Amino acid sequence: MERNYSENVCLCALNRIFGYEPKVAHRIVGAAGSASAVFGMSADERAAMFGPYTGIAARINQSELEHTDDELRRLQDAGCSFITMDEPGYPALLRECPDAPLGLYYRSAFPPETVFNLRPQIAVVGTRDVSLYGKEWCRKIVGAMAGARLKPMIVSGFALGVDITAHLAALEGGLPTVAVLPTGIDDVYPSRHRSFAGTLAATEGCALVTDYPPGTEPKAINFIRRNRIIAGICSGTVLIESKTKGGGMITARLAASYDRDLMVLPGRADDPRSQGCNALLREKLAEPVTDTVHFLDVLGLGSPARRRIPDFEAEVKERYEAVLDPAELSDMAAVAAVIRHNRGITPDDICPEACLPYARVIRLVGMLESDGFISMDLLQRCTINVKIS
């Protein structure tokens, strides 16, 4: 005796079968009236719908439903679920896209209706090979959104570079963030972000989502296809840095095709990492990010709450005037000014700029780093932490 399965299970099964052809899945469900009705068809009815020479009809069977039902039960035990287009927790803007998935696999400690659709959702994407300039501005842009009157959710792809910088900056600024994975919900790519994935899933308002079934590996095509979900969820997309071809550019062009706001960070004309952004500006598909106030206004997030804008040198002076003698304090101010005006400068190069010996510079730079004013990478390049600058 055949068992009856819920509409949720039937939709999940169709998502597995037609995952790479969501538009076909929508037409089939629309023609039949429901996903349950598709699986309730007789063999003759399925042959009439799909034609006699396709193998698709053979997959629409009880065995597929049993497999899907077992999969969803296992996912539930692991703290995951599958949200369908008919449920209130499904992202409202994504539902409007013609190539939206029938449902999303979802991992979070909080129900989807408390994550999606309660606030604006903004995508922040870009290259994995992000420059210091791009990383600094990524943090600055997300920080500006954290200070906006209407605070958004940050959506990105959990990749190296811009994506993970945006996710981390969101949590640091108190914003919720959602990661759209290129794998099944039971996996994390890259694997080095596995621990952070657990932190994100346990944080209020945050989640990991994908339309790929469990067991899906991170193939190249999956990265490209998942970008439609990033763009589709969001009312606006910000491209930080990108070559003329890449996932960030695909997401940006998808956002434009969905008639969503698109903003890009302009860059040097001779920097390959900025050529994609500059191309979108030439094509008049995007607006440039030139200052954070205009940026917030374009995205409809409102002006930031009024607050004193801290000056880096003044903050440094205030912090150290009680612990350094006047001569050292003057040297510290000189080092701070050099770093402020030379993004990515190293201690070696600070010495001639500040007219100070290396031993003095490395000590002062070390103090600035330990107190959170700056960060240094493996090449000892200094950048100012956005929360201070």
Would you write up a description of this structure?
With 389 residues, the chain is of the alpha/beta class. The protein folds into 3 domains: 1-75, no CATH class; 112-298, Rossmann fold (3-Layer(aba) Sandwich); 312-384, Orthogonal Bundle (Arc Repressor Mutant, subunit A). 46% of the residues lie in helices and 11% in strands. The strands form 2 sheets. It has a 9-stranded mixed sheet with strand order 1-2-6-5-4-3-7-8-9, with helices on both faces. The longest helix is centred in the N-terminal third of the chain and has 16 residues, at 62-77. The chain starts with 6 loop residues before the first helix and ends in a 5-residue tail after the last strand. The model has no long low-confidence stretch (mean pLDDT 90).
